[in-house]
Amino acid sequence: MSPALEKKAPQRSCIACGKQAQKAELFRLVRSEEGRVAFDASGKARGRGAYVCSTGCLERAFKSKRIDRALRTSTARADFEQICIALPDSLQVI
Ligand SMILES: [Zn+2]
Prior knowledge:
It is globular and about 35 Å long. The strands form 2 sheets. The chain has a 3-stranded antiparallel sheet. By secondary structure, the chain is α+β, with helices and mostly antiparallel strands. It has helices at about 55-65, 65-70, 75-85; strands at about 10-15, 20, 25-30, 35-40, 50. It contains 3 helices and 5 strands. Zinc ion binds near residues 14, 19 and 53.
């Protein structure tokens, strides 16, 4: 992509489907220092982050180990379940 086409707003892409969106439209996952993975509601937590665009993509990313690859850790099922619980109500995993 030519530099002239760079977008002004920071864009992030979903690790599951690759969809690009503004940071605020995606869910940020963050890896803690202990290697645990959590939902970062503020979007500003310290640590390595990865983005998903929906709970469906969250689930796909977990099952395909893309979260693990993006965050260079091993996502525990318990952590994944916590993330599902922590996501906004309107986007609960069915
Ligand atoms: Zn997605």
